[in-house]
TrEMBL record:
Native source species: Kaistella yananensis
UniProt cross-references to Pfam families, sorted A to Z: NamZ_C (PF20732), NamZ_N (PF07075)
Every Peptidoglycan beta-N-acetylmuramidase NamZ C-terminal domain range: 257-396
Coiled coil start-end: none
Chain ranges of the Peptidoglycan beta-N-acetylmuramidase NamZ N-terminal domain: 53-252
Entry-linked InterPro entries: NamZ, NamZ_C, NamZ_N
This protein's name: DUF1343 domain-containing protein
Gene3D superfamilies membership: 3.90.1150.140, Uncharacterised protein PF07075, DUF1343 (3.40.50.12170)
Amino acid sequence: MSLSAKIKDLLLIVLIYFGFCQMNFAQNTDQNCFKTGADRPELYLPLLQNKTVAIVTNQTGLLKDRTFLVDFLVKNGIRIKTIFAPEHGFRGDADAGEHVKNGVDTKTGIPIISLYGDNKKPKPEQLKGINIVLFDIQDVGVRFYTYISTLTYVMEAGAENGVEVIVLDRPNPHDGYIDGPVLKDQWKSFVGMHNVPVVYGLTIGEYGKMVNGEKWLKNGVQAKYTLIPMLNYHKKQRYGVLDKPSPNLPNDKAINLYPSLCFFEGTQVSVGRGTGLPFQIYGSPWTKNLPYQFMPRPNFGAKDPFLNGKLCFGENLSDYPEDLHALNIDWLLKAYSNYKNPAQDFFLKNLFFDKLAGTDELRKQIVAGKSAVEIKDSWKKGLEDFRKIRTKYVMYED
């Protein structure tokens, strides 16, 4: 074949590729030919045919055209016996920590079982007759965000009851980097089940592979685990979410600030629940030297917000220009140094702060007056050790 013929063939292949991208734009693809796992039904529908399925999902379980995955599956003849709903419920409108009741999806008539409160793990009787649990939730990529804990319990129940788990992968808005203290065993809880840093740099599908591969499920059991990967996903690129993952993460800015500001949930400082800027502001009545003022009031997603009705002084970060690819603990240290309340310690008495941090060392470092640089230096060894584990499960370009 002549060189000119080879060039023509190469040009034809390129045109076909770009033509394919353009043609499929209306079929749930963006300009980069990116697709979530949910938008690749050709990969998962054959696995669900003639099976009895339970699905773990919420308001974020959407296809690119904003069709709910549940509705799409019903339309395609998939038999869904049960919908399992995580924290915040199936429609995603419950407060953080609020008890979510079981019920029925009014559109499809499918029973809904809450996987929050007293029933975080599917019971054997709830999995009876089910062949596959399909998991599709937009995660945030932070250890204390509880959707990865729900996935862990679902995998554990699947392994114990002979039920396959299929995960439809979605972007991690904090992908491509790791940061924060690594959780230590004595602080394990539903807001931190595994020895990983605050930001672990894996998609939810990769995270499930890691939990399974490292035998982190109870008694070292392993689930029959299938991951439906995304198409043309890159870890360093930021993909906007189709719907807010929970009521108090209403936009990309709140999601970006969340890993840095969530530590305040273990202190006497509000992160703006009960305002129009949750996880974009912080403050308390006892940090009066800080410039921004706000007053939490009951609203959607915060029926009784922390510091309800009290004037708070803090900072407004809603216009913070940086797209964070690391934890910023300067705000935490600033709030602590400006906190003036002799009657009440900065940290909550229940030491929920230590559960969020995954260790008591961060709290002790703050009290001792350590700088941000000193604190972050102390994380390096744990992060290096975790990086070696993480590398085994990375599926996408890092």
